[in-house]
Write a structure and sequence with these properties.
Strand content: under 5%
Shape: extended
Structural class: mainly alpha
Distance between the termini: 95 Å
Strand order of the largest sheet: 1-2
Largest sheet: 2 strands, antiparallel
Radius of gyration: 34 Å
Number of helices: 20
Number of strands: 6
Length: 387
């Protein structure tokens, strides 16, 4: 009960020694005594409460400033160690193979067609033998999630194994993306995503035919896809969880498949044919070959039926330079939208490409005709295969 209510009730009680009558001074004295007593008790409780607050662990840490180099390095190293530890907690290929062997060994008959099934009892047995890394997958919740209409109360071994594989892949990818999260706040800036895709290219067999001089345009095209859909408010950053939740990363990593069909390559935005097609369209629109698209040049896109209202809106939303969309400026992303400084070139990691385009005729020709050169190389390689 509130101490004020206690005081009010106490004062309202009659005093039997004086037949319920007290002098005004006595009432004031008693009121002060009671007030002092209950206020002291209340303050004591508040003091204890404040002491309790001090036991709450710290949950906010200020990010190091740009000039606090040592703190930044320490934070980067600690994050790297943390991510390495998380990576070691994931199942490796050998452990996944062992898991599949145990599931196959404990399947519960009868089979449905060619699909092996497992009941909850055997499911728990596999969980006990699979090791501590697998413990998180062998829960009643996971089993119930995969349980459908089987009359024996079983789940598909293949569906469960695919579930585990998907979870492992998501964690691996999240860790891989987090390594490029310079700020350590769970999001990637444009430069972070560019670095991730640039270093991912050599691991994608379907992009082996791309010339290194074309990498900058490819990275720019791929990053624009992510930011157009995942950063509609133009904050300049994308949450890692949003990248994992969308299908874009699946499409990009699909290029690891060395036997990817031609139809799949044509429909995949991140494939080499798609990137070359986009670049070819850009060059065809750029009639004056100045590396930028004017509103008039963009109006020729497709069947040249885009309305003026739409074109006006595009140029209102897109960053332009004297009314034109630039190629080179998109690669460099200078701090000053009207000029490119030496530091801008260094920060962009595209200095060699830009410099070659600007000072060397052969370099400019090679850059402008890279898609044709790649196509010729592909044709030559096909001819060699035929022979």
């Amino acid at each position: 009960m509130d101490w004020k209510e206690i005081l009010r009730r106490r004062l309202a009680m009659p005093n039997t020694r004086t037949n319920g009558k007290k002098s005004e001074q006595e009432l004031k004295d008693e009121e002060m005594d009671l007030f002092t007593k209950y206020y002291s008790e209340w303050k004591g409780d508040r003091k204890n409460t404040n002491e309790f607050y001090k036991t709450i662990p710290r949950f906010y840490y200020r990010l190091p400033a740009e000039d606090e180099v040592l703190l930044q390095k320490l934070r980067e190293e600690s994050r790297a160690v943390f991510l390495q530890r998380k990576s070691r907690e994931l199942l490796d290929n050998e452990e996944l193979q062992n898991l599949w062997f145990l599931l196959d060994k404990h399947q519960t008959p009868p089979m449905i067609g060619e699909e092996a099934m497992i009941n909850y009892e055997n499911f728990l047995k596999v969980g006990e033998k699979a090791g501590p890394k697998c413990k998180q997958f062998f829960t009643a919740k996971v089993f119930a999630k995969l349980l459908h209409t089987d009359s024996y109360g079983r789940i598909s071994i293949m569906q469960f194994f695919n579930y585990v594989m998907r979870k492992v892949w998501l964690h691996q990818t999240r860790i891989g993306l987090s390594l490029y999260d310079v700020a350590g706040q769970g999001y990637l800036r444009e430069s972070d995503l560019e670095n991730y895709i640039l270093e991912l290219i050599p691991t994608l067999p379907q992009l082996d035919g791309l010339e290194k001089s074309f990498y900058s345009f490819y990275v720019c095209t791929a990053v624009r896809k992510f930011f157009f859909f995942l950063d509609p408010l133009r904050t300049g950053k994308i949450k890692i969880q949003d990248i994992l939740a969308c299908s874009f990363l699946d499409d990009l990593l699909e290029l690891r498949d060395e036997e990817l069909s031609k139809e799949s390559q044509e429909t995949n935005w991140f494939s080499a044919p798609s990137a070359l097609r986009v670049y070819g369209q850009y060059l065809n629109l750029d009639k004056d070959h100045n590396g930028m698209l004017s509103k008039e040049e963009l109006s020729r896109y497709g069947t040249a039926t885009m309305t003026n209202v739409f074109l006006d809106r595009v140029f209102q939303e897109c960053l332009t330079y004297d009314g034109e969309m630039d190629e080179i400026f998109d690669m460099v992303k200078p701090k000053d939208p009207l000029k490119i400084s030496l530091q801008d070139l260094i920060n962009s990691n595209q200095g060699d490409t830009v410099t070659t385009i600007l000072i060397d005729l052969n370099g400019f020709w090679t850059y402008e005709n890279r898609e044709a050169l790649v196509a010729n190389d592909n044709e030559n390689s096909i001819d060699l295969d035929d022979t």
